[in-house]
Amino acid sequence: MTTMETSGKGRGPVDDASSAGPRPASPDLMAMRRQDQRRKWREITLFTSPALLLFALFVVFPVISAARYSLYKWNGIKAFSEAEFIGFENYARALWGGNDPATQAAFKSAYTEPFWQAVGHNLLIIVASMAIQLPLALMIALILNRKFPGRSIVRVIIFAPYVISEVIAGVMWFIIFDPNGIATQFVNAIGLHPPEGGWFESQQWGIWTVFFIVTWKYLGLAIILFLAGLSGVSQELQEAAAIDGASWWQIQRRINIPLIGPTIRIWVFLSLIGSIQLFDMVWVLNRGGTQGQYATIATFMMQYGFFRKDVGFGSAVAVIMFIFSLLIAVGYMLTVLRRDNDNSELAR
Amino acid sequence: MAHMRRTAALAAIAASTALVLAACSGDPGDDNSPGPTGDSTEPVTLTWWHNGVAGDSGENTLGDYWQKVADDYTADHPNVTIEIEQIQNEDLQRTRIPTALQSGDAPDIFQQWGGGEMAAQAEAGYLMDLSDTLSDTVASLGGAVGPWQADGKTYGLPFQFAVEGIWYRKSLFEQAGITAEPTTMEELNAAVQKLKDADIVPIAVGAADKWPSAHWWYNFALQACSQDVIKNLGSFDFTDPCFIKAGENLEALLGTEPFQPDFTSTVAQTGATSSAGMVANGDAAMELMGQWNFFVYQGFTDGSDEAIQALLDDLDWFPMPGVGGGEGDPTAALGGGDGFSCYVDAPPECADFLAYIVSDDVQRGFAETVGGLPTNPNAADAVANPINQEIAQAASSAAYVQLWLDTDLGPNVGGALNDGIATIFGGTGGPQNPVDAMTAAAATE
What we know:
Helix content of chain A is 71%, strand content 1%. Chain A is mainly alpha-helical.
C-alpha cells in the first residue's frame, strides 16, 4: 500500500492521518484550521449568494406574494392597498363553490366545475403519459440501442421536436389541425372523418389531440434519455446473457430495463412536473378551447385570474397548483427516488 | 499560471457585471419631467402608446398617420417632445397598459376603449379628468363621448367610433339570387337558405375567438331589452327576462345552420380559413363585424390598388336585421371605438395634445388618409368610402348607440358573458348560461 492509499480518502491535508499516528493538535494548527473553515464558508457564501439571491427574488418572493394576494379580493387595476381582505374565500370558490350559500350554486357552475375540469385534464395527461409515452419511448429506445448507419441522424430527427419552441410548435399544429387543414384531408383520404366540432373543439377528443401534440413534442426527450441510460449498461452483461441463451426480449426485460431504472424514474418525475405545469402549448392552441375542452390548471389560472382581472382568485389557483406540485414532487422523491439516492450514497 | 487564472476571473466578473447592469437599466424613455405650472417654455416629453402597428403586408397607415400628427404638434409646440410606442392591440389592452398603470410608471397618453374597464381605471385614480380642461372639446364631440365618461366626468376622448353590421359580398348575393338587403330576421333566414341552395357558406363567424360569436348575442340583447335595461348594465342586474330572450333568438338563428362547418374552430382574422379570410376570398357571403373589417379584408388581397379596389367594389354593408317583438328600439345600434386617455400625473400638455388629436383638421386627415370613421362631426364630410358613409349614416340615425357589451361590462363580467355565449355556440349550453355566468362574475366583484 502506498502512502497515498493509507492517507485516507483525500479529505484534505489537515485531516490526513499519517502512518505515524494522529499528531497532537498544536495551537497554531487549531488557528489554521479555523481560518481554513472561515475561508471555506466565505467562498461558499460568495459563490452561492448570487444564485440564492436570484432564487429568492424570482421564485420565493413571487410565491409568497401570490399567497398574500390570494387572501384578497383584487382586480389588479387599483392599488393593492385598497384591496379587500377576504381570507380563504378565493380558495373556497375554486375548490367547492365558496362558503356563501346564496352564491354557492352559481359559483359552483361558473368556477368550481371549470377548475376541477382543468385538474382532470392535468391528471389525464399524467396518466396517459405513463401509460402511453413511457412504454412507447422505452420500446423505441431499446430498438434503437445498437449501432447502425445513420444512427446520429435518426437521433437528431427524434430529438428535433423537443428543441422547437412550444409556441412555434403549437401554432404549427393549430394550422395542421384546422378543420380544412391537412390533418382533416389526410383522415378523409383514408375514409374517416375528424371529430365532431373540430380536432380541438370536440368535447371528447380535444384533450386527446392536445395529448398527441404533447407526446410528439416530448417523446424525443424520453427516448434520448433512455438511450443515454442504456449506453451505460455494460455490453458484456448483454453478451453474457446472449451466450447463456436469452432471447432479445429477455435481455431487455431482465437486464437493460432494470439497469436504467434510475433514468426511467427521473424521466417519470420530469414528466409529472411538466404535466402539472403544462401551459404554453395549451395556451397557444386557442387557450384551452372555447369551453375549456382541454384547459389545464395553468390556463384556467390565466384565463380567470389575469384576463378576467380576478387577481386574488388567480393567485389562489396558483398557490393550489404550487401545493399540488410540491406534494407530488416531495412525495415522489421520498418514495420512488429514495431508493436511487440510498444506492448512490452506499456506492461512495 | 495563477496570475493568468486571476486575470481571467476578473475579466469574467467584469463581463457579467456589465451584462447585469445592462439588463437592469431601465428604458431611458420612461422619464418625463412633469411641468407643474404648464410653463410653455419648459421642455416637456410625452410618451404615447397606441395600437397602430404594421399589418401582414408591412403597411402601417394608422401608425404613420399618428407619427405625422405628433410631428405637426411638436412643430407648433417646440418645447414638447412626443415619444411614440406602437403596440399590438391585444398586448396593449390586456398586458401593457394594466401593468404600466399598476406599476405607477405609466405612459402619459395611451389608448382607451372606454366602458367598464375605463371606469375601473378612473376609480383607481389613474386617469386625468378632462371634464373641465377640455369642456369645449367634449361638448363638440357630442354623444360619441358617452362610453368615455364615468360618474359624469370625462376621462378620455374618442377619435374613432362606428357601429357594426353585416358585411357581405355583392357577387355572392347575386349568385344566390338575393336582390335586396335583408331588413328583418325572416328575410335574413330566407337569404341564408338561398345561399345554402347555391352551395355558398351563408355567414362566416370566428367563434374560436369567442367575441365574434358573442356579438350576435349582444345584438339580440339590444333588440330584446329596453333602453333602460341596457343603459343600466353597470348595476349588474341581469334578472330581466330579455336576456333569456336574446339567447332564445340566438338559438333560433343557430337552428337554421347559417354558419360555416366547425365554426367554433374558426378564428376571426388570421389566415385564409379565418372568418375574415373566408369573406375576403369569396368563400363566405356575410360576416357580422365592426368597421375595422374594412382594413382586415384588405389585408387578404395582394396589396395592389387594383385588388383592393376590386374587393371594395364587391363589398357592401347592412345593419343587423331585427327579430321583432323585443322591447328595444329597432334602430338601436351596437358600436365601439377607440380613444385616448391621459395619465393622472401627465403634464397639462397631454390634455392639449389630446384635444389636438380630435380637432377638425386632424380628424379630417384621419378620415381621408387612414379611412377610419371620425367622431368629430365637422370631419364627417371627409369620409369618402361609400361603405363607411353607410356605417356613419346608420350610427347617426340610430336611436342610441350602445358600446360592445363586453367592453361596457368590464373584463370580469364581460369575459364571463362571452364564455356563457360560447356554450350556446358550442351546443352545450342554453339561453340561461350567459345570464348565470354574468351573475356569478358580478357576485365576485
